[in-house]
Amino acid sequence: MRFLFKTDYEDDIKLFPHSGYVVSYGILIALLLVAPYLLSSYLMSQLVFVCIYATVGVALLILTGFTGQASLGHAAFLAIGAYTAAYLQKYNVPFPVYFLAAGVLTGIIGAMVGFPALRLTGIYLVIATISFALIVEEILARWESVTHGNEGMRVKTLSLLGVTVPRDSPTFYYLCLAVLVLTIVGTLNLLRSPTGRAFVAIRDSETAARSMGINVALYKVKSFAISAAITGFAGVLFAHKLSFISPEMFTLQLSIEFIIVILIGGTFSLHGAVLGAIFIVMIDPFLTYLKDDMPGIIAGIAATFGASSATAGNIQSKVAAFASLNGLKGAIYGIIIVLFVLFEPLGLYGRWLKIKLFFQLFPLYKRATFKRQKIYVKSERNR
Amino acid sequence: MLDFVQQLVSGVALGCVYGLIALGFVLVYKATEVVNFAQGDLMMLGGFFAFTFIGMMGLNYWIGFAGAVAAMALFGMLAERVVVRPILGYPQFSIIMATIGLGYFLRSIAGMIWGTDDLKIETPFSQGVLRIGALVLAYDKLSVIAATMILCALLYLFFNKTTLGTAMRASSENMLAAYYMGIPVKRVVSIVWAISAAVATCAGVLLAPITFIHSNVGLVLGLKAFPAAVLGGFGSIPGAVVGGVLIGVIESMAGFYLPEGWKDVAPYIVLLTVLLLKPEGLFGLHVRKKV
């Protein structure tokens, strides 16, 4: 077991508290850099989506995880970023310019959403952000001179400094990875700055933050703007990855998926965004695998336990019929969300920490370390 | 002018459905401070139960209706026991996510069991219209309006005049204090979920002749019921119905008088405006913040 001995504040806010961090993250980065040479093109494509979802997850964590402002409207910010890129691209604006423009525009719109959100907390904020997302969705469908309405927009292949970067090339993957890594490093730095500390203070108690002299309104708007801007950057990559965007891609469903990303990953650490993104993106291939291979495997297991070939065939067809049921994905989503909220409220990263602590403390680990406190006393209305 | 009245009546009927769903939100919120994002899906499930009893088993409409309400009340209790009770006392965000998950689950299960087609329930009000001069009013819409008014009045009296209603209001203010006063908080929460599922079922069955029942109806209408609940102030029973009616009328007027596209966003624009100007809603209590 390692004991970190801190002698001053600088020690407390170091990006890499000890050399183990440098080694493990170095290995991770190296693996991610050689990934295009090891993985199949399908997995590479999924990995790009992991990067994009994780970027949005980090953005959402800044707002929801660290400032405590829940948002179910991030699909709208993603859409604004994606459409800005697609629109500017028509006028041959170079990539770096429209990439920045998308982020800045989304950030400004995020700040504009943040202002009305100042007066709202809890459920009202969730409803307000849902409304904002639904209005944006409708505008995208109706403002045909810019967005081409429901026909959608084609996004041209990305060209960076005169070199075309196809959406399934390793270069595009490196670009997405770079954006993700820069976002994470930037966010880590933000969170250990006074701004980040103010965010966390607002999350923990708005009244206490205000009495400590924090301008709550200013920081909430900042949090909205930063979160929206990062989502806008991700939107540009999202548009290029899909090469075609239309309003029905940016529905409430997508916003909920983003929330699921941080919920499953864990809302208290940036690791959560990445783990959750891996989970959400990989659930599709996993379901396809279930659909294709599971019936055969289960029938095989049944056969080894002495079932006759007729019964095994019967089981196989039944499982296949179940696996190809229409709403299975939705049902699995629903069950996963409920199970995580009930049994793993700290998410995948929380589970990782628990396992780590279990081995560090080996016979002395106790469950109560991670127990959250229930509050039955105060009504949120009076808070 | 005739057009206007016609639009007004259909808006009010639609609004009453929103109001009924919003009533479910408000009931659960009033008693437990939980916002149930699966309320619309409970309504959808209630509609499907009624369809099973009436359309598939061939029961009498009223018996089937009562059966569906009873079955859904039990289902509401089950959902509360399994999903909500373990996380009472945790931040609202967890509970919101849990009910969103429950909604996902119910939608896909309903799609698996009853298919994805639009289903229709034969009701005594399906046919026939009431003519007042040149004005033509369909019975199915009038039945929705009448039922909403009756339910709203009953629930209002229940909450304000009965012991159980008082117990519910008390446990919403402060669960711990209510428990010390001898209120069985767990049972109260369970009952409130049963009532709200029953109200949702009424909405689903009454709605069946107007919009039909399909597995996504709950999501679509549930999202429209939020503006209704917020407009009325999230904790007020008459407010929910008034809010619902206002949203319904605004939507149907926007659909008639404004260009295409406004119909769907008008309720949300109203919602955002209300949240900006008067976040406590039309009927909400204004509470001072305590430190």
UniProtKB/TrEMBL annotation, chain A:
Key words of the record: Cell membrane, Membrane, Transmembrane, Transmembrane helix
Segments crossing the lipid bilayer: 21-39, 45-63, 95-115, 122-143, 172-191, 212-238, 258-283, 295-315, 330-349
Superkingdom in the source lineage: Bacteria
Localization per Swiss-Prot or TrEMBL: Cell membrane
A GO cellular component entry from the record: plasma membrane
Membrane topology: Multi-pass membrane protein
CDD domains in the cross-refs: TM_PBP1_LivM_like
Major localization listed first in the record, in broad terms: membrane
A Pfam family hit: BPD_transp_2
Record bears the keyword Transmembrane: yes
GO molecular function terms listed in the Swiss-Prot or TrEMBL record: branched-chain amino acid transmembrane transporter activity
Protein name according to UniProt: Amino acid/amide ABC transporter membrane protein 2 (HAAT family)
Lineage: Bacteria, Pseudomonadati, Pseudomonadota, Alphaproteobacteria, Hyphomicrobiales
Automatic annotation (TrEMBL), chain B:
Pfam family name, one: BPD_transp_2
Protein topology in the membrane: Multi-pass membrane protein
Keywords: Amino-acid transport, Cell membrane, Membrane, Transmembrane, Transmembrane helix, Transport
Domain of life: Bacteria
Molecular function GO terms recorded: transmembrane transporter activity
Cellular location(s): Cell membrane
Membrane-traversing stretches: 12-30, 42-75, 95-115, 136-159, 191-213, 225-250
GO biological process: amino acid transport
One GO CC term on file: plasma membrane
Family that this chain belongs to: Belongs to the binding-protein-dependent transport system permease family. LivHM subfamily.
Stated name of the protein: Amino acid/amide ABC transporter membrane protein 1 (HAAT family)
Species of origin: Bradyrhizobium sacchari
Lineage: Bacteria, Pseudomonadati, Pseudomonadota, Alphaproteobacteria, Hyphomicrobiales
